[in-house]
């Protein structure tokens, strides 16, 4: 069985007296997408720099495609695609020139015209990098990360500054990478992006891992936060509210909402109360918490 694409074990990164990454462990399986989430300053970019081999950890270990990313940097780089948030290109060169230059570094590059077409950059091929919009620069940076046919791609905020159409195109391209067996480690502030694309999610908060799992596991663990019931109108809700750690309202005649952290026992208690009240229940709906709900709950302290 092949080794994981990325294995991070108890990694620590310090800048003087500041600990940016404090004992983080994670694994990116081969052919999978892992989304690394966290507020600004959570340690995501520092961890990426260690995985990319641009700096060594102050403690812990990292293996990338089976290699030490620092000691094996020269052997590893041709196998990686790295999309930076900014920089790394010649601002006075055109988009087409930059892409062809990066393609010349690879042993078996992708067709540059295909990438220009796929990412909607054909009409900007003769535009200098400095004159591209932020979203266009992002699309070019993604093309540069992919042109060398990498086994593993690091994407740092890949859709920042993109419009809706370009973002959707990028999502489709990332999904194609996974289908082709390419491993992806991405950071993003877009929770719907992570929920849509990622096989695994790691949420960082103040340099540590606050939660990890698949999007489905994380949202399932968070539970139900809204129960909607349609029944006879004008029922006395004071007694029901007193039994629950939740808010109970009748938003419209006969349309009740119970909002709060609701487990199976709480939902059963609500339905039992309606039965005891002799109410005719005609509809029951639930809303499970989203990945955004989970993220906000875990990083609320950092946001404050």
UniProtKB/TrEMBL annotation:
Superkingdom classification of source: Bacteria
Keyword vocabulary terms for this entry: Antibiotic resistance, ATP-binding, Cell membrane, Membrane, Nucleotide-binding, Translocase, Transport
GO biological process: response to antibiotic
Membrane topology: Peripheral membrane protein
One of the Pfam families matching this protein, by short name: ABC_tran
Keyword Zinc-finger: no
Classification lineage: Bacteria, Bacillati, Actinomycetota, Actinomycetes, Micromonosporales
GO molecular function list: ATP binding; ATP hydrolysis activity
Record localization: Cell membrane
Organism: Actinoplanes friuliensis DSM 7358
Protein name (record): Spermidine/putrescine import ATP-binding protein potA
């Amino acid at each position: 069985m092949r080794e994981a694409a990325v294995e991070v074990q108890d990694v620590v990164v310090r800048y003087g007296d500041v600990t940016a990454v404090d004992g983080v462990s994670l694994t990116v399986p081969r052919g999978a997408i892992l989304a690394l989430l966290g507020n600004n300053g959570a340690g995501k970019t520092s961890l990426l720099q260690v995985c990319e081999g641009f700096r060594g950890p102050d403690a812990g270990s990292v293996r990338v495609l089976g290699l030490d990313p620092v000691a094996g940097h020269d052997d590893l780089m041709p196998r990686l695609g790295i999309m930076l948030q900014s920089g790394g290109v010649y601002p006075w060169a055109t988009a087409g020139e930059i892409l062809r230059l990066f393609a010349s570094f690879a042993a078996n590059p992708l067709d540059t015209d295909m990438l220009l077409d796929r990412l909607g950059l054909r009409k900007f091929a003769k535009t200098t990098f400095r004159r591209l919009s932020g979203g266009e620069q992002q699309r070019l940076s993604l093309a540069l990360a992919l042109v060398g046919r990498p086994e593993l791609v690091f994407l740092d905020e890949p859709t920042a500054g993109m419009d809706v159409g370009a973002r959707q195109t990028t999502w489709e391209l990332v999904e194609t990478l996974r289908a082709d067996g390419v491993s992806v480690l991405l950071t993003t502030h877009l929770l719907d992006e992570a929920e849509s694309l990622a096989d695994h999610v790691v949420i960082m908060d103040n340099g540590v891992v606050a939660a990890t799992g698949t999007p489905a596991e994380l949202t399932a663990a968070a539970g139900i936060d809204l129960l909607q019931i349609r029944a006879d109108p004008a029922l006395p809700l004071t007694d029901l509210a007193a039994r629950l750690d939740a808010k109970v309202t009748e938003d419209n005649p006969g349309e009740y909402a119970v909002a709060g952290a609701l487990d199976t026992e709480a939902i059963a208690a609500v339905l039992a109360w309606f039965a005891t009240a002799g109410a005719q229940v005609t509809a029951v709906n639930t809303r499970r918490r989203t990945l955004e709900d989970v993220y906000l709950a875990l990083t609320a302290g950092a946001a404050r």
